[in-house]
Amino acid sequence: MGNLKSLAKETAIYGISSIVGRFLNYLLVPVYTLALSAQSGGYGVVTNIYAWVALVLVMLIFGMETGFFRFANNGKDDPMRVYSTTLLSVASVSLTFLVLGLVFLKPIAGWLEYGEHPWYVGMMMIVVAMDAIQSIPFAYLRYKKRPIKFAALKLLFIGLNITLNLVYYVGLKGDDVGYAFFFNLVCTAVVMLCLVPELRGFAYVLDRALLRRMLSYSLPLLVLGLAGILNQVADKIIFRFVYPDQAEAIVQLGIYGAASKIAMVMAMLTQSFRFAYEPFVFGKSREKGNKEMYAQAMKFFIIFTLLAFLAVMFYLDILRYIIGRDYWPGLRVVPIVMAAEMFMGIYFNLSFWYKLIDETRWGAYFSLIGCAILVTMNILLIPRYSYMACAWAGFVGYGVPMLLSYFVGQRKYPIHYPLKSIGLYVLLAAVLYVAAEYVTIDNIVLRLAYRTMLLLIFIAYIIKKDLPLKQILKRR
Questions:
Q1: Which of 230, 241, 228, 257 is nearest to 380 (CA)?
Q2: How far apart (Å, rounded) are the C-alpha atoms in residues 321 and 316?
Q3: 10 Å Cβ neighbour count for 334?
Q4: CB 35: neighbour CB atoms within 10 A?
Q5: Of 181, 186, 166, 184, nearest in space to 35 by CA
Q6: Is it the case that residue 412 has pLDDT exceeding 80?
Q7: Which long-range contacts does 168-174 make (Cβ < 8 Å, 24+ apart)?
Q8: Which of 251, 336, 353, 406 has the largest CB neighbor count within 10 A?
Q9: CA-to-CA distance for 464 and 470, rounded, in angstroms?
Q10: Is residue 332 classed as helix, strand or coil in its secondary structure?
C-alpha cells in the first residue's frame, strides 16, 4: 500500500507540474501575438524555429533517456555507471552538434532562411544542446524519486521565461522576436546551474560495452520518437520550403501557429486524462475483466474530449482574444486541429494493446504511416491551400493510425468497445456543433447563451446515460 501511495503522489506531482507548466507557457501566446503583428512574421519565426528545436532535441537524446531507465532498473548493471555512460554519450553528441552548428552557422541560417539573423539559430542551437544534456539529470531525478525538485526546476524555467517576456514585450513594449530566443537561453542556463549537484559527486565512466547494449535498445526508440515528433512539427518545418512566396510564408505560418494554440486546449485536457490512464492500464493488466474496464475508459475519454471540443468551439468568440486580432483569420483551423488532437488521444488509448502483449513494433508501423501521410499531404497541398493543408494533413495523419491501431488491435488483442454508445455521443456532438455554427445570431450575448444551452444539452445527455445523479447521490 505504501508503494502505491508513493506512486500516486509522484504521478500527481509530475502530472500537475506538466499540466500547469503547459498552461503557464500557453500564456506566452497572447504576449507574442499582441506584441508581434501577423504581418511582421515574428510569431511565424517563433513557430518555425521551435519546430526545428523539437525535432533536433529528439535526435540529440536518441532514445537514451528511456534507455537509462531500462538499464538502471534491470538489477544487473550499476545504476551510477549507467547514468555516467548515458550522460557522457548524450553530452558528447550534443556538444559535437553545437560546435559544428556554430562553425557552420551562417550557411545553416541561410538554408533556413534566417541569413539576416543567424544569431536566432545560434542561440537555439545552444538551448537545444543544453536541453538534451539536461534530459539525463532530469531522468536521474525521476529515478531517484525526487519529483519535487524535478517539478520545481520545470516551473522555475517557465516562470522566469514568462516574467522576462512580460517585462520586455508588455512592460517595455519591445517588438524584437530575437529576445524570445534570448530569454529561453537565459532560463535554460539557469536550470543548468541548478542541476550542477546532479552532475557531480560520482565517477565519470564511459562503459563502451554497456553503451553498445544501450544503443541497441535505444536507437529503435529514436525511429519511433522521430516519427512521433514529425507528426507534431513537420508542417511547421515544411511550410517555408514549399510555400510559393517566401516572405508571405512566414506570415501565414505565424497565423497558423497562433490559431493552433487555441486548439491546444484539447491537448492540455487530454494530457490530464493520460497521466491517470497509463498507470490505470498497467495496474489492471492482470485483473479479471480488465478489457471491459479498458473499453469503458475509452468511452469516457471520448466523452471527455467531445465535451472539450464543444466547449472550445461554442466559446471561441471569447477564446479568440487569446491571440491578436490580425491572427483571427486562422481560427478556421481550430475545429480541424482539435479533431486531430482527439484522434491522437484515441490512438494513445488504443496503443496499449501492443504494449500489453509486447509487440511494440506495431506502434512504429502506425506512427511511420501517419508521418508519411502527413509529410506527403503538406508537401503537395501547402502550395495551393496554405495552412489549411497543414490542419487537414494532421487530421488525416492522426486519423489513419488511429483506425489502423483499432482494426489490427481487434485481431491481436480484441476489446469490445461500446461502439453504439460512443457513436451516439459523436452524432449528438456533431448535431450540436452544426446547430451552433449554422444558426446566425448577431448579438454576442444571445449567441453565447444559445450555445451554452446546446452545451448543457450534451452535459444532460452524459448525466442521463452514464452519470446518473441517483447513483452518485446513493454512493455519497
A1: 241
A2: 9
A3: 24
A4: 23
A5: 166
A6: yes
A7: 169/31, 169/32, 169/34, 169/35, 170/31, 170/35, 173/35, 174/35
A8: 353
A9: 10
A10: helix
The answer to whether 90 and 135 have CB atoms below 8 angstroms apart is: yes
- pLDDT in the model for residue 142: 84
pLDDT of residue 475: 47
User: Buried (b) or exposed (e) across 121-153, using 16+ Cβ within 10 A?
Assistant: bbbbbbbbbbbbbbbbbbbbbbeeeebeebbeb
The x, y and z cell numbers of residue 142, run together, are: 525521476
Secondary structure (3-state) at 41: coil
Residues 127, 181: Cα–Cα separation, whole Å? 9
**Whole-number Å distance between alpha carbons of 30 and 227:** 30
Residue 453: count of CB within 10 angstroms of its CB: 13
Q: Are 312 and 263 in contact (CB under 8 A)?
A: yes
Whose cell is 444532460? That residue is 460
157, 161, 164, 166: CA torsion to nearest 10: -140
Residue with the three cell numbers 481560427: 331
- How many angstroms from the chain centroid is the CA of residue 452? 29
Cell of 259: 490559431
231 neighbors 104 (Cβ within 8 angstroms): no
What type of residue sits at position 134? Q
CA dist., res. 31 & res. 23, Å (int): 14
Residue 228 has pLDDT above 90, yes or no: no
Identify the band that residue 76 occupies on the pLDDT scale cut at 50, 70 and 90: confident
Sequence-separated (6 or more) residues with CB below 8 Å from residue 360: 354
Q: Are 303 and 460 within 8 A, CB to CB? A: no
150: amino acid identity, one letter? F
The Cα 161–Cα 72 span in angstroms is 33
Rounded Cα distance, 343 and 422, in Å: 14
**pTM of the full predicted structure?**
0.83
- Residue 185 corresponds to which amino acid? L
Reported as a single tens digit per residue, the pLDDT across 175-202 is 999 999 999 999 999 999 999 999 998 9
Radius of gyration over alpha carbons of the chain, in Å? 23
Close Cβ partners of 1 (under 8 Å, ≥ 6 residues apart): none
User: Phi/psi at 309 (nearest 5 deg)?
Assistant: -60, -50
